[in-house]
Amino acid sequence: MSQGCSRKLKTATREKIRKMNLLRGREVLPGEFWDVVAVTAVDGSQRDSYERQIREKIERKELPLGAQYKVFSDPPGCKIGNGGSTLYALQQLNDIYGKALSNLRILLIHAGGFSQRLPSASALGKILMPLPLGDPIYQMLELKLAMYVDFPSQMKPGLFVTCADDIELYNIPEEERVSFDKPGFTALAHPSPLSMGTTHGVFVLDLHERSSFPEMESASCLSFLHKPSIDKMRDSGAVCRKQGGLFSMSDSEFVYTDSTYYMDFDTAKSLLNLLNELGPLNCEIDAYGDFLQALGPKATIEYTKNTANVTKEESSLVEIRQKIFFLLKGTPLNVILLNNSKFYHIGTTTEYLFHLTENEAFRSELGLLSSAFTVNVNENFSGCCIMHSVLDLSCSIEAGSVVEYSRLEAGVSVGGGSIISSCWVSSGLSVPAGAFMHTLCVSHQEQTTFVTVFFGIKDNLKKSVASPAHLEELLLFGFNLTKCLSHWEMENECLKFSGDASSCSLWNARLFPVCSEQQSSFSMSLRMLQAILNGNTSSPPRGTALMSMQDCLRHKNLEEMLKLKRGLHDDIKQGKHSI
C-alpha cells in the first residue's frame, strides 16, 4: 500500500472515531444515527448477558442515546446459522414495530456463538470485547458503530448486516458518500489476495480492463462465489489484475471479497415471508453463502447442493437453499468497490494478540494504545496491551501479551504472547509464555465460585474425538491429554466430559478446579499448568469439583461477573494505586 493511501486510510478512520465520540452519551438527531441497533445471541442466556451489559453502557453514556438497542436470541434447538438468525431477527423486529418497520434503518450485528476460538469472549460476548482506545474505553460494539457512522444518513429504510468480530476500514474521496439507496442487496467489496478469497465470499463483477482504480466505485455483480477455490475464481472471471496504486496489497492479481451488506425493506419483507412459509428451521443457513449466491444474472442453482462448507449437514438444507434461490433469483446485487480499504478479522486468540500488540498498521490506523483505562502501568512495558486493569508497579508484562479486566499484584510476571483475562493474580506468580488464562464466576451448589480455565494460545478447543479412549489426540499446550492427566495424578477413566458423550474435546473436558475465591482459583490452575511444563505433579485437593469451559458457560454467574467489572471500573476511576 502506498504511503499516501495508508495516510488517507488512517485519517479517514480517525475521523470516523471522532464522529462516534461526539455521539456517545448524546441524544441523536433524526436521521443522524441508526433507528435500531439489533444484536443476535445464540440463546436466552447470552441474550440476557448482552441486554444487561448494553443497558449498563447506556447508563454510563458510552453509546449514542435515542436509538433502540435490541437483542434477539436464536430459538432453542438446533443451530440455524447467521442466515437463520437474520430471519428470526426480522420476525422479532416485525412483531415489535409492525408497519413502522418499513421506515426504519436497522443495523443487525451477528454476535451469537460461544467464541471457542477466543474463549475470553465466551461468557460476556465477542461484541463486547475491549479495545484499547477511547474514553470511556471502547468495546467492539462502539468500534462497529464508529466504522459505520456515516451510513445511516445515506441509507434508505432497510437492514444492514454485519458480524461482530470483523473490522472494515476504508477511505473515499471527501466529496463522495457510500450510499445504500438501491433496490435489492448492496454489498461492500474489498480488493484481496486470491488466498483470502478461498475463505471468504468473492464477487464476479462486470468490469472492463482499465488502467486505474478510483478509491470508490459501484459495479454490477454477475454472481457471488462462497469460499471458492482459486481455479474456480479464475474460471468464473473473478480475478482482476492490478494496474493502479490504490491497494492495500502488493499482489498483481486480486479478487473482490465480501464483508457487510445492505438489503432494502422490500427484500427483507420477502425473506420474512419465506420464514413464515418454512416454519421452524432445523438446519444452518448462511447469511452470505445462502443469500448472496442466489443473486446476479449468472447465478445458478448448483451451489444449493454443495455442502462442503457446512458444519452439520441436515436433510432439509438443500430444499431450503433452493427455496431461497427461487425467492431471491433476479434480485439485484449492487457492489460498492472500496479500493482503498482493509478488512480485519479478530475472532481467534492469535488474531487478538497480533492485532492488539504487533500489527503496527492496524494499531496506527485506529490509534490503539498500549495501555487503556488502567492503573499503574510501568513505562518500560512495550509491545503489550493492557486494558481495564489494576497492576502493581513492580509487575512485568512481556511483549505480545494482552491483559484485560484483571488485577496483578506485586512481582507478577507474564510471559510473551499470553492472554490474561478477568483474573486476580497473587504476588510473585509467573505466567508462562503462550498461555491463555481466564477466570469465570460460576454458580456451583448454590454458591458463588470461581473457575480459571487455561489453554495454550494455539490449542484447538474445537477438535474432538469420539471417546476418552483417544485422549492422546487432544493436545493441551502441546502435550497430549493423557500425559497432562498423569501430571495431575488423574487416571484417564476419571476424566469426565460435559454435554455430548460422543464428542470429547478440550472445550468440554472437566479439567478445571472450582474454588471459593478468585485468587485461589487462578493460583491452583497456574500450578496445574506449570506441572505440565515443568514435568512435576500438582493435583487439585481431594474432593475438588472440576468443570469444563462448557460447564462454566452453562453455570456462569453473570451478576457477579459484572459486579467484579464494576469494582475494577470504580477502582480505576478513583486512581487506586494499590490492590
User: What is the CA-based Rg, rounded?
Assistant: 24 Å
Shape: globular
Strand content: 15-25%
For the residues shown, what is the average pLDDT? 94
Q: Report how far the terminal alpha carbons are from each other.
A: 45 Å
Topology summary:
Elements: H1 3-23, E1 36-41, H2 44-59, E2 68-73, H3 81-97, E3 105-110, E4 130-131, E5 138-139, H4 140-147, E6 158-163, E7 166-170, E8 185-192, H5 194-197, E9 201-205, E10 216-226, H6 230-236, E11 240-241, E12 253-264, H7 265-278, H8 289-292, H9 317-328, E13 333-338, E14 341-345, H10 349-358, H11 360-366, E15 371-372, E16 385-387, E17 390-391, E18 396-397, E19 402-404, E20 407-408, E21 413-414, E22 419-421, E23 424-425, E24 430-431, E25 435-444, E26 447-456, E27 464-465, E28 475-476, E29 479-480, H12 481-487, E30 504-505, E31 512-515, H13 518-534, E32 546-547, H14 549-554, H15 558-573
Parallel strand pairs: 1-2, 1-3, 3-6, 8-13, 15-16, 16-19, 17-20, 18-21, 19-22, 20-23, 21-24, 22-25
Antiparallel strand pairs: 4-5, 6-12, 7-14, 8-12, 9-10, 9-12, 10-13, 11-12, 25-26, 26-31, 27-30, 28-29, 31-32
What's this, in brief?
This is GDP-fucose pyrophosphorylase domain-containing protein. InterPro entries: Fucose-1-phosphate_GuaTrfase (IPR012120), GDP_fucose_pyrophosphorylase (IPR012887), Trimer_LpxA-like_sf (IPR011004). With about 575 residues, this protein is an alpha/beta fold.
List keywords for this structure.
24% strand; eight-stranded mixed sheet; 579 residues; globular; alpha/beta; single chain; five-stranded mixed barrel; 32 strands
